[in-house]
């Protein structure tokens, strides 16, 4: 637990270690099978073009899942993700590097170890494609 982010040691404004992903068309097909989201804009270039898109697009929920990985990787086994929410702002395309980032936005003063994180995904153009928040419970240092 050497890398465990304890509540007492975590400052507002602290950045989570960034996570990089590179979604592929194959991953989109696999995600469609796992999630049941078979919208053809995620795997069929012609269907995407018919909707005016420049190519197939990554499932928004897949990007949201990557943001959850960012948070849980940082929390480690001693922390707990309590809730999260996201908003979809722009499209993510397969083959583009996706940079997942987060920062501690605020900490509870109630002694419960809760912190709210601001989380987001950026495409190579610096656009935030998905933004959101996560409420986490950090372990407390023994007294």
Strand share of the residues? 25-35%
Helix content: 10-25%
Strand arrangement across the biggest beta sheet: 1-3-4-5-2
Shape descriptor reads elongated
User: What sequence of helices (H) and strands (E) makes up the elements?
Assistant: EHHHEEEE
- Count of separate DSSP helical elements: 3
Mean pLDDT: 94
Write a structural description.
Residues 23-108 form the MaoC-like domain. InterPro entries: Fatty_acid_synthase, Fungal_FAS, HotDog_dom_sf, MaoC-like_dom. Keywords: Transferase. The protein is α+β, with helices and mostly antiparallel strands and 143 residues long. Helices cover 23% and strands 29% of the residues. It has 3 helices and 5 strands, in the order βαααββββ.
Please describe the structure with a list of short key phrases separated by commas or semicolons:
single chain, 143 residues, alpha+beta, 29% strand, elongated
Secondary-structure blueprint:
Layout: E1 19-21, H1 25-35, H2 45-50, H3 60-75, E2 80-88, E3 98-107, E4 114-122, E5 128-137
């Amino acid at each position: 637990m050497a890398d465990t982010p304890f509540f007492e040691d975590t400052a507002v404004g602290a950045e989570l270690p960034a996570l990089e992903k590179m979604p592929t068309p194959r991953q989109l097909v696999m995600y469609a099978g796992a999630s049941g989201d078979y919208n053809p804009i995620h795997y069929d270039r012609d269907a995407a073009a018919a909707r005016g898109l420049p190519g197939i697009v990554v499932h928004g929920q897949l990007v949201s899942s990557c943001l959850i990985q960012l948070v849980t990787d940082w929390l480690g086994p001693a922390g707990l993700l309590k809730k999260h929410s996201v908003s979809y702002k722009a499209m993510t395309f397969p083959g583009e590097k996706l940079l997942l980032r987060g920062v501690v936005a605020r900490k509870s003063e109630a002694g419960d170890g809760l912190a709210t994180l601001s989380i987001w995904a950026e495409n190579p153009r610096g656009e935030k494609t998905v933004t959101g928040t996560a409420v986490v419970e950090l372990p407390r240092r023994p007294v």
